[in-house]
Amino acid sequence: MIHIAICDDKKHTTENLEELLLVYTKERGLEAKILYFTAPSALYAHMGKESVDIIFMDLNFGTEQEDGILWASRIHQRFPQALVLILTAYEDRYKEGYVAKAFRFMTKPFSKEELYANLNACLDELNLYTSIILLRRGMAQKIPIIDILYFAAHSGGSELKTTDTSYFCEESLLQWEEKTSPNIFFRCHKKYLVNLNAVEQIKNHTIILKNREILPVSRRKWTLLKSAFIKFDIATKGKD
């Protein structure tokens, strides 16, 4: 289940956002819990008891103590995996939001298309911090997706490679391709499914990983890879 918080003291904004969120989650078959707050301090206190994945945060609540940027910064420091989307009609405060590590900005009044694009980016980002489960000698082992470099074709299955080690998997490369997010993992070659988060550079039909390992890229995948890498970089630069 994904936990979404709306923090806004304007009823019409909350109702509009809630309606769109319910449609979005239903269309994608997502189980979601939507929480409502009229002050950032109340949201922050709640997060000490229950985790929140995505936060829609207004900027102005009428007092300096309840400033959205201030609380977005505090949330990022204490709950760095929570994604904060700033709701504002004031573009001149965008720079403050970058300092506060806001994941995205949504300019009021926002459109359905803008909301959906931002939610898709959020889900891709959250997927980086989830895990896959490997069964090894009858025991389940969690491998964080963010730690995975790539999957490689292997006789009788595949190899899952991380920075520190590698694991043999019974699943084929095609099965992993079907199980993982296409916005995070890219089939660059018939023998490799690479985690775009692990890519340092692409050049001359090769991928240079952050651990300096080099993977080949098939000619027919080169243009698609460049497009996927740019899209991934744009979607995830809110992390930095």
Give a quick set of tags describing it.
240 residues, 7 helices, 5-stranded parallel beta sheet, Rossmann fold, OB fold (Dihydrolipoamide Acetyltransferase, E2P), 15 strands, 2 domains, 32% strand, 33% helix
Explain what you see.
With 240 residues, the protein is of the alpha/beta class. It folds into 2 domains: 2-127, Response regulator (Rossmann fold, 3-Layer(aba) Sandwich); 132-239, Beta Barrel (OB fold (Dihydrolipoamide Acetyltransferase, E2P)). Helix content is 33%, strand content 32%. It has 7 helices and 15 strands. The strands form 4 sheets. Strands 2-1-3-4-5 form a 5-stranded parallel sheet, with helices on both faces. A hairpin with a 2-residue loop joins β8 (148-154) and β9. The longest helix has 17 residues, at 11-27. The protein is elongated and about 60 Å long.
Question: What topology emerges from the helices and strands here?
Answer:
Blueprint: E1 2-7, H1 11-27, E2 32-37, H2 40-47, E3 54-58, H3 68-78, E4 83-88, H4 94-99, E5 104-107, H5 112-127, E6 131-136, E7 139-144, E8 148-154, E9 157-162, E10 166-169, H6 173-179, E11 185-189, E12 192-195, E13 199-203, E14 206-209, E15 214-216, H7 222-236
Parallel strand pairs: 1-2, 1-3, 3-4, 4-5
Antiparallel strand pairs: 6-7, 8-9, 8-12, 9-10, 11-12, 13-14, 14-15
List the domain count as a whole number: 2
Low-pLDDT stretches: none
In total, how many beta strands?
15
Main pleated-sheet profile: 5 strands, parallel
Helix content: 25-40%
In sequence order, what are the helices and strands, one letter per element? EHEHEHEHEHEEEEEHEEEEEH
Strand content: 25-35%
Could you give the order of strands across the largest sheet?
2-1-3-4-5
What name does CATH use for the topology of the largest domain? Rossmann fold
Radius of gyration: 20 Å
Q: Could you say what the CATH architecture of the largest domain is?
A: 3-Layer(aba) Sandwich
